[in-house]
Amino acid sequence: MNQSIRIKNIGDLAKLAGVSTATVSRALSNSSLISIDTRNRIQTLAKQYEFQPSVVARNLRMQKTGAIGVVIHVGHERNQHVSDPFFMALLGHLADGLTERGFDLLLSRVIPENAEWLERMIDSGRCDGLIIIGQSDQSAVLDKVAATYHPLVVWGGYKPGQVHCSIGSDNFLGGKLAGQHLLDRGCRNLAFFGDPRAMEIGQRLEGFRAALEPMGLAHQLQVVPTHLTADGQDSEITAWLENGAKPDGIFAASDVMAMNALRALSEQGLIVPDQVRVVGYDDLPLAQQLVPRLTTIRQDIAAGAHYLIDCLIKRIGDQETASIVMKPELIVRMSS
Fold first, then answer.
1. pLDDT for 253-297, tens place per residue?
2. How far apart are CA 244 and CA 250, in angstroms?
3. In a 10 Å sphere around its CB, with 0-12 CB exposed, 13-18 middle and 19+ buried, how is residue 207 labelled?
4. In this structure, are residues 179 and 207 in contact, taking their beta carbons and an 8 Å threshold?
5. Which of 80, 238, 276, 334 has the most CB atoms lying inside 10 A of its own CB?
6. CA distance 41 to 39
């Protein structure tokens, strides 16, 4: 090997091999459009001269970026931040999984101002596909885009006729499990914390109501559409309690909401679970660190992240994938 020769790009390698740059590109990508002998000769030269083709250049030739966009959009809950414990848990699994599959993660937080927000992200060409975390109040936008843009998957709920591919737990069943558990614990004055405009939360409320129906309690269920403030507090819960509400059972649509409920109940001098029993949803790591430890509906976030990545990669390869609805599980701890 002539040590004075340096191969810096495909053009240099093409000159050395006496072929076109297109032929070199095909040889390095194992294309069947050139002969085996030519392919082997060029690959041997590349190895001899320690030439590594640019990943960026390869991606440009293949019209790929090597990046996956992960989008947190907060349509109905504008004060929710990326630091939310649920987002952090899911993002951790997504980052690990995408790295293992050879992709970079491009994270965006979006406050939708109009129906074109998602189309603008796609038109930017910055990534090979999108993972959207949550449907919020944007299900119609997701369906419209998914009808023509294939490499798109969404963490969230599922409903018949839905166009976009979603991964998530059976929210209706989860809500029903929470309701039946609180009934079994003797609760009769029940409340639901969460904004049902978001599909997942609305489905959890429907399941909760379904559990109360046989006991004739659904009509008196109190729904508190809670919203996080900039400091992470939940003013609606405090105001509701200060106005004289006396629940004996609360189902919070997320563990974060349940955490805020525990704090607000404590501030009002109400003891959990002696006076009020509380159930959350998600089973985040913090559920076992709260005092008392939180009873919750577990959805398998790690498995969900795996399904999101797997479905998206298949869709990038033009394969069809169906939505996946995972079975939730009641985890009983000290708060109920």
1. 999 999 999 999 999 999 999 999 999 999 999 999 999 999 999
2. 15
3. buried
4. yes
5. 276
6. 6
At residue 47 the predicted structure's pLDDT band, cuts being 50, 70 and 90, is confident
Helices 301-316 and 85-100 pack at an angle, to 10 degrees, of: 50
This prediction's pTM: 0.79
Neighbours of 303 (CB within 10 A): 14
Q: What pLDDT score does 64 carry?
A: 66
**Residue whose token pair is 């609360």:** 250
Express each pLDDT in 132-152 by its tens digit. 998 988 899 999 999 999 999
The packing angle between helices 171-184 and 199-212, to 10°, is 40
Residues ≥6 apart with Cβ < 8 Å to 103: 66, 67, 68, 128
The domain defined by 10-61 folds into 434 Repressor (Amino-terminal Domain) (1.10.260)
Other beta carbons within 10 angstroms of residue 85's beta carbon come to 16
CA atoms 296, 301, 303, 308: torsion sign: positive
Could you give the 3-state DSSP secondary structure of residue 179?
helix
Cα separation of 119 and 71, whole Å? 13
Domain 172-298 has what CATH class?
alpha beta
Q: Are 68 and 20 in contact (CB under 8 A)?
A: no
Distance in angstroms (rounded) separating the CA atoms of residues 70 and 96: 13
Q: Which residue has the tokens 């293949």?
A: 62
Task: State the CATH class of domain 67-170+301-327.
Answer: alpha beta
Give the phi and the psi of residue 59 in degrees, each rounded to 5: -65, -40
Q: Show the tokens assigned to 293.
A: 């430890």
- Which residues have C-beta within 8 Å of that of residue 271, sequence separation ≥ 6? 265
List the beta bridge partners of residue 278: 250
Q: Where are the domains of the chain?
A: 10-61, 67-170+301-327, 172-298
Pairing of strands 190-193, 165-169: unpaired
pLDDT of residue 234: 65
Q: Do domains 10-61 and 172-298 have the same CATH topology?
A: no
